[in-house]
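Lab manual, section 2.4: Encoding a predicted structure.

Procedure: take the sequence of the chain (157 residues), apply the prediction step described in section 2.3, and record the output as structure tokens. A sample record is shown.
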Amino acid sequence: MLVRLLDLPDISEAEKNLFENHGVIFKRPISPEKSIVVDWTKKHFSKNWADETEVAFASKPVNCFIAQRGQEILGFACFESTAKNFFGPTGVLTDQRGKGIGKILLIKALMALKNMGYTYAIIGGVGPAGYYEQAVGAKIIEKSEKSIYQNLLKQPK
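Recorded output:
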């Protein structure tokens, strides 16, 4: 999907409410948190996503945002970890969905891409297309069924 980065919604009030009412903070993790974030991603999502998350730590600042409450990670969103100008992977714990955490992570990552000089960003390997269309006005890129992920090697389960 393609996202125009010049029209991203303001998330400041939603972020403030999540902090004040639920103690959730959003931040870019730093190097000493790398193994914690990568291990968490592998445990809750997949080895492939953990690999992409690990690559995000090669950039300074880290090309990833996390949502945390105390010492608990609730969600993450990476960008430019698999390809230039790509958003993802991203995920929120199942029991934390529906609170706006994913949308804040999405927009923070897209804003970081905008701050890097991009006007548009690509959401690769899209799962919930309707969600991205509603959240940030993303549009399907025609003929994008074949992508950098089409011959992806995956760990056996």
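Check your result against the sample. Strands lie at 2-4, 25-27, 64-69, 72-79, 86-92, 120-123.
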